[in-house]
Amino acid sequence: MDLLPDAAPLATRLRNTLVQYHSIPGSEWRVAKRTKDATVWRKPSEEFSGYLYKAQGVVEDVTNRIVDHIRPGPYRLDWDSLMTTMDIMETFEENCCVMRYTTAGQLWNIIAPREFVDFSYTSSYEDGLLTCGISLDYGEVRPNFVRGFNHPCGWFCVPLKDYPSHSLLTGYIQTELRGMLPQSAVDTAMSSTLANFYSDLKKALKT
């Protein structure tokens, strides 16, 4: 188990990594799933043997409200059907914390519940916001859970220029679920989970 990292340099590195992902040309991505709410692409991850996923869709709401629903805080548990518990373990400053959360089983429990401990950081980006995270080897692993690991992940949320009450939400996710899992099951689950994330978020914002 590691000690907590120094928050400021980790936040800077994490933000820079996400901005780098955001500039990957479209030709490097392959479509994994399309729904009315979002398109999901993927490309081989440079961090581990799985994929880096990119998800994008327009959400009818202002940037701050959308990001408040995504980042660690009281809203996320209310609407994200995949997340079953969430605790803030450490707070460095208002926009920077370490959280522990658990996820529900997926694909008829082929993928058992997982636990993650993530460093989370939210900052301004262009006219909007970026909220990003990376897993830490920190805290005891609870029984009955496999500890998963999120390589650099994040969500860019910027207002549409012609429709400022709508926002373009773009996510980059690369989750190493760990444990004994067929890769095809993981890939199916990731694409569907990201598409469902948008539909669930939209429903939550309308309530």
Written account of the structure:
One of its GO terms (biological process) is cholesterol transport involved in cholesterol storage. This is STAR4 protein. It holds the Pfam family START. InterPro entries: StarD4, START-like_dom_sf, START_lipid-bd_dom. The chain is an alpha+beta fold and 207 residues long. The chain has one domain: START domain (Alpha-D-Glucose-1,6-Bisphosphate, Chain A, domain 4, 2-Layer Sandwich), CATH 3.30.530.20. The chain is 26% helix and 38% strand. The strands form two sheets. Strands 1, 2, 3, 4, 5, 6, 7, 8, 10 and 11 form a ten-stranded mixed sheet that branches. Strands 9-12 form a two-stranded antiparallel sheet. A hairpin with a 4-residue loop joins strand 1 and strand 2. The radius of gyration is 16 Å and the shape is globular. It starts with 6 loop residues before the first helix and ends with a helix. The mean pLDDT is 92.
Summed up:
The protein is of the alpha+beta class and 207 residues long. The protein is 26% helix and 38% strand. It has one domain: 2-Layer Sandwich (Alpha-D-Glucose-1,6-Bisphosphate, Chain A, domain 4), CATH 3.30.530.20.
